[in-house]
Amino acid sequence: MKWPIVGAIVSKDLSLYFRSKFIAAITVLGIVSFMVIYFVMPGTTPVTEIGLYAPVVPSAFAEEDKERLDFVMVDSEAALREAIAGRDYIAGVVLPADIMETFARGEKPDVKIYFSPETSEDHREILTHFVEELAYEQTGQLADFNKTEIVVGTDLLGRDIPLRERMRPLWAVMLLMMEMFGLANLITVEVQRRTVEGLLVTPMRVRELFAAKVVSGIILSFIPAALFMAVVGGMNSQPLVVLTAMLLGAVMVTGISFLVAALSKDFMSILGWVFVVLIIMAIPAVGIMMPGTITGWAKAIPSYYLVLPVHQAAHYGSGWGDVGHYMLALVGFDLAFIWLGIMVLRRRFQ
Fold first, then answer.
1. Whole-angstrom distance between the N-terminal and C-terminal Cα of the chain?
2. % helix, strand, coil for the chain, step of 5
3. Backbone phi, psi, residue 66, to 5°
4. Minimal CA–CA distance to 301: which of 337, 271, 344, 272?
5. pLDDT one-digit tens code per residue, 271-302
6. Digit-coded pLDDT (tens) for 209-249
7. Residue 112 in 3-state DSSP?
């Protein structure tokens, strides 16, 4: 490998990339816009709905808009646990069928309170007091009960994540994928103008050409996304894990850029392919932003193995042991996309 030649090609690519006013503008505008949106959004998360399973619903529990906590009826205790695990509700309450008779006998009914892993300590206290107040309203006296608190999933007490922080993986993925447009456009223009043919008649070999394109792609996609994450606090926890995941994501984006360039003939076709890929790759991040909206099928999307490590490391402090298997899967996708992209693009060069 002749690295001076690779360096020269990378320098040329970066220069040509930013000569395009449109590409340079959307790169800068994307970073600035996402940062502005992030800091404008509220930094706290509102109280969400509470699931309730009760064979017999006391009238006090049917009243709404108390302390901004609304009860939503579910069909079974198992369904309630599943909904909380899927982040549909921030917590859940299970009342026994004989709760009113138990109160009437002066005994303590058994009440279960389920919490999601992301329910904050404040929300737990609010809900517990809320149930006590409802019991008082129902009986007209200080009614005590046996309370059992259950956390569904890994207990992440105090990790009540605002929406804007949940959206960080989505924005990071979008910044990564936006740079795919620039690299694909650069390659397509070089093919159309026969620049590639001119380069290949020099001492440069095909391996140096593709090595330079890979390096250029990684630089162009990794730096904007990493800069954004650094500014909005996405690297305050486990920065090395986050950076590694972003770097692997940049490699994947580069491979996809090769495929887009190979399938595109002009600017509009590049735009169409990038738009489709961007929507697909953003789906797992949307699942993190709005828990419960995406099911297990999202694991078939390669970006799932990018956004999940970033999310867990940035928000929960997950280390290599927790996200290592996602990283390995991401490496596999990187190799597959780079190999496939080179094979397809090489045919077009010929």
1. 21
2. 65, 5, 25
3. -105, 120
4. 337
5. 888 888 888 888 887 776 666 556 667 788 89
6. 778 888 888 888 888 888 888 888 878 888 899 899 999 99
7. strand
